[in-house]
Design brief:
By secondary structure, this protein is of the alpha+beta class. Helix content is 21%, strand content 51%. The mean pLDDT is 88.
Length: 136
């Protein structure tokens, strides 16, 4: 899954195509001092979205990421979530922000991995950080 995971496919499912991929890098091996051999991949992407697009994105990103993992046969073994939404006033206008920072432990056959599928949305902009680490 690590090598084939497509953020573009997830963004397309959500109807947004204007994402700028800031990084899509595979680290092999990662880290070199690890007890067991591992490979990692990090994807960072950002998009300017209208309020309606931002609301749709925050509501559906995690579900789309889950479906993407399932297409590779990933079985979720454990998950820890951290979600926070807030509104604050800046310059007399309300600014909404939302953090979704889940960590998922998964297995695909004998391969075990960790997936951080994070999204940060605030004031017309969304940032996604996808970090996948698998044992070799």
């Amino acid at each position: 899954m690590l090598r084939e995971f497509s953020f573009a496919a997830i963004a397309a499912q959500l109807g947004q195509a204007n994402w700028k991929v800031l990084e899509d890098r595979t680290y092999e091996p990662f880290p070199s001092q690890a007890r067991s051999r591992r490979i990692a991949r990090r994807i960072v992407a950002r998009a300017d979205l209208t309020d309606a697009e931002l609301e749709k994105f925050t509501a559906q990103f995690q579900d789309s990421a889950t479906r993407a993992m399932e297409t590779y046969g990933a079985v979720n073994k454990a998950q820890f979530d951290m979600t926070e939404a807030s509104t604050r006033v800046i310059g007399g206008s309300p600014v909404q922000s939302r953090l979704d920072l889940p960590r998922r432990y998964y297995a695909i056959g004998a391969i075990h991995g960790v997936a951080d599928l994070w999204s940060i949305a605030e004031s017309g902009q969304a940032t996604v950080i996808v970090s996948l680490i698998e044992g070799l």
